Amino acid sequence: MVQSICPYCAVGCGQRVYVKDEKVVQIEGDPDSPISRGRLCPKGSASEQLVNSPGRQTKVLYRAPRSTEWERLDLGTAVEMIADRFIETRRRTWQQNDSEGRLLRRTMGIASLGGATLDNEENYLIKKLFTAAGAVQVENQARI
């Protein structure tokens, strides 16, 4: 048994994850958790399916523009493609000053929409990253 946190929202309910032969076999609420005291919502109770679903994607898939087929990419290539596009978009859409010369230092070409499965620490780091990059549209699905 390994103690963990439910991945579905920012509440942080405690889970007990039971592993046998390197496979998750059961997930239940952690009664030692001061947040959830052993309870899980329906999504948290079903999170074992998230790990063991036969439909779970475990490889990076990419579909080129106007293509009808997906192709597999290694993680390093995918990260490089994302970084290159991020940097190019920032460069292309950068606004140093407005029409009256006031300092802006922003890009309106990049935005971030986080998911409800991110915890507070992840959201904090994402906010810092995108703000440092000059993005002003940083939002989270849990707040919308």
Blueprint of the fold:
Elements: E1 2-5, E2 14-20, E3 23-29, H1 42-45, H2 47-52, E4 60-62, E5 71-73, H3 75-93, E6 94-97, E7 103-114, H4 120-132, E8 135-140
Parallel strand pairs: 7-8
Antiparallel strand pairs: 1-2, 2-3, 4-5, 6-7
Q: What would you note in describing this structure?
A:
By secondary structure, the chain is α+β, with helices and mostly antiparallel strands. The chain has 4 helices and 8 strands, in the order E-E-E-H-H-E-E-H-E-E-H-E. The chain is flat.
Number of discrete helical segments: 4
Q: In terms of per-residue confidence, which ranges show pLDDT below 50 for 5 or more consecutive residues?
A: none
Count of distinct structural domains: 2
Radius of gyration: 20 Å
Fraction of residues in H or I helices? 25-40%
- The general outline is flat
Structural class: alpha+beta
What is the typical, i.e. mean, pLDDT?
Answer: 92
The count of β-strands is 8
Report, as a whole number of angstroms, the end-to-end distance: 35 Å
* Beta-strand residue percentage: 25-35%
Q: Main beta sheet, described?
A: 3 strands, antiparallel
Which H/E pattern describes the elements? Answer: EEEHHEEHEEHE
Sequence of strands across the biggest β-sheet? 1-2-3
Features:
single chain, 144 residues, alpha+beta, N-terminal domain of TfIIb, 4 helices, 8 strands, flat
